Amino acid sequence: MLFLWLMKNSKIGVVGLGRMGANMARRLKDQGHSIAAVYDLNRAVGAAVAKELDSKAPELLSEVSELCEVIFTVVTDDKAMRTIYFGTDNLFRPSRLYINCATVSPNVHREIEKKGREVGAEVIEAPMASSMTHAREGKLYMMVGGSFESFQRAEPLLKDIAVSLRYIGGPGTAAEVKALVNMVMNINTAGLAEGFGLAEALGLDFQLIKEVFSQTGANSRVLETDGQDMIEREHSTFFSAAHAAKDSGIALELAKEQGLNLPLLIASKQQYDRMVKVGLGEIDKSGISELTFRSRKADLS
Predict the structure, then answer these.
(1) Model confidence pLDDT, tens digit, residues 211-223
(2) What contacts 179, CB < 8 A, 6 or more positions away?
């Protein structure tokens, strides 16, 4: 009950107001939490979200931690994470709880958690296997890594944005699991795109193939979420190809550290890298089908 009271009465900050961060902030506000500060490198976005949530949009990261007791971060990559925590102007301040939700390298999470302990702060990682719609509706699936005591303190707050919480273990462990989740998802997406691409070349009916896939060993969550989008070329962004390339890279580095050769991971990453190269990095990962359908390849020349 003490943790619940503390979390319900804490002033919250959100750093990184992209598709996920902004919707998490909105959800927390809807649940009665005080969003004291929001921050984004895009000052116009920060100002707009701050106005919407009756919050402040400080110029400096350090001001976010001055105004808030709990800070969520949802930034893009390893470089961004190191910048907000180790830059000249950074978030660290004693007696704060930092909840890092981005998919970044496990060792970066470990570095930040270690530094947090040194300055008297608590740091946990809480990567999400969900979409921006889930963030807005409080239906995130979150994996948590860090000290169990810090997880327990954060749990009442996380329950207001997540439908499922899974404590994985110490620092970096949740990030490792998230890397595996996205690795398998990205490989499945690439495989489905190749299956549909071959179906097109053979002159088979897409809807028939999709229905057969759904009733056989070819079925997958990716078929449910991306199958029709591939057929209809509807690639509105829920999880971008650029993020798929980045996350596949995290998994590939982990594999290299363990001395593993993972050919499917390597091949799928090459496809997402190619999407970025030809200017398709910001569309949804379902757009990988643009590389496999014979009728669409001409558009990339």
Answers:
(1) 999 999 999 999 9
(2) 103, 106, 247, 250, 251, 254
